[in-house]
Amino acid sequence: MAKIIISCAVTGAIHTPSMSEHLPITPQEIAEQSIAAAEAGAAILHLHARDPHDGRPTPDPKVFMQFLPVIKQSTDAVINITTGGGLGMTLDERLAAPLQASPEMCSLNMGSMNFNIAPSAARVQKWKHDWEKPYLENTTNYIFRNTFQDIEQVVERLGKGHGTRFEFECYDVGHLYNLAHMLDRKVVEPPLFTQTIFGILGGIGAEPRNLMFMKETADRLFGKDYVWSVLAAGRNQMPFTTMAGMLGGNVRVGLEDSLWLGKGVQAKNNAEQVAKIRRILEELSLEIATPEEARAMLNLKGGDRVKF
Fold first, then answer.
1. For domain 6-305, which architecture applies?
2. Tens-place pLDDT, residues 255-296
3. What is residue 199's three-state secondary structure?
4. CA distance 61 to 86
5. How far apart are CA 228 and CA 135, in angstroms?
6. CB 243 within 8 A of CB 230
7. How many helices (H) does the chain have, and how many strands (E)?
8. Distance (Å, rounded) from C-alpha 83 to C-alpha 106?
9. Helix (H) or strand (E) segment spanning residue 47
10. Per-residue pLDDT reduced to its tens digit, 14-66
């Protein structure tokens, strides 16, 4: 079995400040938690930006550039910038920071989907900011857009324009077929870093049989042309990443995907989640990949060729 890549999604655009006091908001907090996650064993850091005043997701390259160089100077981890951005952002807004930063890797959702995170609003008793509750509740009528044309634009502008490679985010089995379509047409090139995602309302559910089905489908569609990884939302994070590791897959944790460390216990930072999944995997006699090993597995261009 190959060594396991641990990715850490540090802040995301799903959770809001009122949901956890530990969610990193400011550039300094994002940098500090990213560096700590890398020190705990994360080879890849998946990053969004937030308005430092109220925690709202922002696509502003100026905000990204307040933490990207700090992280790069302090760790050798692969920096992976979102192209999903936050709710309601246009494609141009979502690409603004990656096009300026020219990172080794970016996330890329493999299709449009209903993306409903409204149920989480019911669990918040007191809101810190006026934007949070409507942001969550309005997702009952929200479609995350990534058409075939959008996907090809991202690959053309970032992949071919900057040598950036992708974390292909697949929220349902149809997204795997979308990726296979792109591979058949040579829009994308192997190795495909394929992140199968479970437990988001609008995507495939977090059931073990679904994990097996997604893996079997990806095996059939991509054969040796892909590198498999798993993330699961909320309380399903640790059980699903553990299953993935046992099956030879890579894993993603982080406060973007879950605010929890265990039942009823919120994670105080991203490094706690990274340390926990690393401990579990190493107890199973599995080895953890270094950033350089991850670069080799995913055919990345190297940290010396980014623009931050």
1. Alpha-Beta Barrel (3.20)
2. 999 999 999 999 999 999 999 999 999 999 999 999 999 999
3. coil
4. 14
5. 32
6. yes
7. 11, 14
8. 6
9. strand 44-47
10. 999 999 999 999 999 999 999 999 999 999 999 999 999 999 999 999 999 99
